[in-house]
Every structure is written in structure tokens, then in C-alpha cells.
Amino acid sequence: xxxxxxxxxxxxxxxxxxxxxxxxxxxxxxxxxxxxxxxxxxxxxxxxxxxxxxxxxxxxxxxxxxxxxxxxxxxxxxxxxxxxxxxxxxxxxxxxxxxxxxxxxxxxxxxxxxxxxxxxxxxxxxxxxxxxxxxxxxxxxxxxxxxxxxxxxxxxxxxxxxxxxxxxxxxxxxxxxxxxxxxxxxxxxxxxxxxxxxxxxxxxxxxxxxxxxxxxxxxxxxxxxxxxxxxxxxxxxxxxxxxxxxxxxxxxxxxxxxxxxxxxxxxxxxxxxxxxxxxxxxxxxxxxxxxxxxxxxxxxxxxxxxxxxxxxxxxxxxxxxxxxxxxxxxxxxxxxxxxxxxxxxxxxxxxxxxxxxxxxxxxxxxxxxxxxxxxxxxxxxxxxxxxxxxxxxxxxxxxxxxxxxxxxxxxxxxxxxxxxxxxxxxxxxxxxxxxxxxxxxxxxxxxxxxxxxxxxxxxxxxxxxxxxxx
Length: 470
Hints:
Elements (H helix, E strand, L loop, with lengths): L18 H13 L4 E13 L2 E7 L6 E7 H5 L10 E11 L4 E11 L2 H18 L16 E7 L3 H13 L5 E6 L6 H13 L4 E8 L13 H9 L4 E5 L7 H5 L2 E2 L3 H8 L3 H34 L2 H4 L1 H44 L1 H6 L4 E3 L18 E5 L2 E5 L25 E4 L9 E3 L22 E2 L3
Parallel strand pairs: 3-5, 6-7, 6-8, 8-9, 9-10
Antiparallel strand pairs: 1-2, 1-4, 2-3, 4-5, 11-12, 12-13, 14-15, 14-16
Helix pairs in contact: 4-8, 5-6
Subunit structure: Heterooligomer composed of large and small subunits.
Keywords: Cytoplasm, Exonuclease, Hydrolase, Nuclease
GO cellular component, one term: exodeoxyribonuclease VII complex
């Protein structure tokens, strides 16, 4: 077998260190450490002859070391050393190779004074305050009537009875979820924090009370522990602190959502007073009944006042007045409408007379005639008429046809022609009017102008020609 490796990193499965080598290596490494000062809490103390063996525990976490110290150093302490005491000691770490354990060999041991503990608590208080752990805006309101109350207290303690009895005296139906833990000593912080986490996760617990019935200052130090303070600050359920009395104020009172001066005060705060609430409800119902009675009486008086008014004493009176007004308005509307219709009728009659006076028929009725070609065109000029052309003559009552016997050229009258205005029986004459804008017209005896484009009055014929009736 070859030589052993010098360093731990050089060991392999084929070349391992024996246990004695590792123990010696650890012992050599520990022996190189210097002496140091360490603080902790004494949880076990066993004097044996000239040496005392004790267990030194960290007050915040579950860690501990074995310590051996000479009885001379213990006896030199100003106060007797007891379990639970906070001490600071000067020690040298040593490693016991036979059993593989690490322990401290103390040279000096001193108790931690109350002043030192208070100074440390004050420093922690300032640190947490700077972080905002104690701020009022982060505190949660206490529920008016919780479903279930979580209670963290000592085992069979008077504080538990104070909280439960006072709460049930005020509200008999209150229910509790109780966790009994150590409220002083080395395990107080761990057990209280574990119970707090458990109750905070309970679905029916609406508020948590941490109660302890007072004690010495050093006994209340766990409730100023940083781990417990931060656990309470992180809880989602409102927490009530009921630690000690009015003169005691651990840091738990500052971080809790509400501080009770005593456990009894916490029992009164956690639930309402059933008798007081019943009295308030009764008083409220009485006030409501009185208010409703007064309101009904006021409305009744108002209704009587309304019914006494004339309009409600004779409701039809207003209808009669409005009916008279409506009838008057209807009469005025009828008169106005009738007047408008009469004026409109007169206007229509006047327009009809104007239309009749201006119509061609009216002109024909006055003795005029309209001469038309065969195609319906009006004869406007004598030169438009041909010899023998069949013309249509329209008079007031009917029409007839004629044929011209001349072409409209002026010819001297015959000697034996009858005088102007006289025609042989059975003969007809076509004449041309001399007025400007007149058309050819026919006349028997006296010549008349046409209705279209002719002037009114008697036309004077300039040419006469005999024609035979068609």
C-alpha cells in the first residue's frame, strides 16, 4: 500500500484516509483557531468535580455547542449560573478525536447584564423601525366578529383562562383554536413562531392572540426576538399582542396589529359584547320605530291638508273650467274656419268668373267666330285661304263649313251688287277685317272678328265676294 495523500482533495476510492487520519486532520485544523468570545443561553448545566459541563444554545435558532469550563471560573461569576441564563464566555474550540465531537474549552464566563440586553433590544427596535416594520399603515384591522380565534399561550397558563373566559362572557358562541407552547426559555421563540405559522394557515382563524401573563424582563426577551417580530409582520392574519402588563412593552407590542394591555383586555377586544350589541340593536329598532311613526304622522297631516284644498274637495271643478275653455276655443275655431271657407269660396267664384271671361267660349258667346283650316290651324291671314278650300267656322253654338269663292285679291264691286250690309237671301259673304291683327271672319249682315288674334269690336269689310255655301 502506497503513502497516504497529504490533502483531502487528493484522496480517492483507492487511496482513502482512515478515520484516525481525518480526525487528526480536523483536530489540527481546529487547534489553529484562535480564542474567541461567544454569547448564548445556558440550557444545561452539570458540575462534575472541578469541571462544569454545559450546553450553550443560540437564543434565536435551534443550534447549540457543548462547553466545558472550570468550576473556578463559574464560581468567580458575580451571580450563580443557572439554566436559561444568558452568558458570554471566552473559549478555544477543540476537537475530541475519539468521538469526533467539537466542543469549547472556556477560560472565562460572564453573565450578560440586563442593561446589555436592553441596549441590544433598543438597537433592534431602531433597525426594524427604519425598515418600516412598525408602521401604522401596514397594520390590519381586527375583525368585528371572527369565525374562530387563534390563541397562542403557555401550557395551562392563567393567560389562557383570562382570554377564553372573558371572550365567552362577552360572546358565548365564540370558538377558539388554541396552541399551547413554551412562552419563556430557549425554545420559546421557535415554538411561538411555529404556532403562528400554523394558525395563520388555518382557513377559519380570523385573528390570532399571543398571550402571556407578565414576568421578569429577561423572561419576556423572547417576545423581542427578531425572528418572532419578523414572523408576526409576515402573517396575513391580524395579530393581537397580550404580553405582560402595561409596564412591559416587548417589541411584539409594536409589530402587532393591536396591543392589549393584559390577556383580559385581549379577551374583551377579540369579540364584541353580546349584551351591548343587543342593547344597541334594541335602541336602534326603537329609534327607527319612532322615526317611522313621526314620518307617517307627517305624511298623514300632509295628506289631510291636500284633501282639504278646494281642488280636491271638488275635483270636477277644474274639469268644468277646462271644458268651458275648450268649448269656447272650439267655437272660435269653427267661426274662423267658416269665415276662411267663405272667403275661399268667394275667391274661387271670382277666379271662375275671370277664367270664364277670358275663355274662348266667352268670346264666341259675344258673336265672334273662329275660322280654321282643315287640319285645324287657325286662319290668320286672308292670303292663306285658297279658292274652294273647305274651311271650318266655329261659332258660339256649333260649327259649319264654308268654301271661299275668291282668292282674296281686291276687286271692284259689281254695279248690281247689293248695298253694304245687304246680301241676297241664301248668300254668304267672306270678309277681311281691317283691324290690325285680325283674322278672316264670316258675318251675316255685320262682320265680326275671330277670337284668336282678333280685336274686339265690329270689323269693317274692305272686300266682298260672293260664295256659295258648302
